[in-house]
Amino acid sequence: MSATAQKTGISRQIRLPNSEAAKIALRSLKIRFWRSGITMAGIVLGIAFLAYVMVSGQLERTFQLQEGVPVDAGAQSHATQIWLIAISLLVSGVGITNAMLMSVTERYREIGTMKCLGALDWFVVKLFLFEAAFLGFAGSLLGAILGGLAAFLSAMTQHKSVLSVVSWSATLEVLVIAVAVGGVLSVVGAIYPARRAGKMPPADAMRTEM
Amino acid sequence: MIETAQRQEYAVKTLNVTKEFTMGKETLQALKGINIEVLAGEYISIMGPSGSGKSTLFNMIGGLDKPTNGKVYIDEVDISGLDAYELAWLRCRKIGYIFQTFNLIPVMTALENCTLPMIFAGMSTQDAAEKAVELLTLVGLGERIRHKPFELSGGQQQRVAIARSFANDPAIILADEPTGNLDLKTGKEIIELLRRLNKDKGVTIISATHDLKMLDVSDRIIWIRDGLVDKIERRDELDIAIGSLEGEEA
Question: What is the predicted pLDDT for the residue at A144?
Answer without folding.
Answer: 96
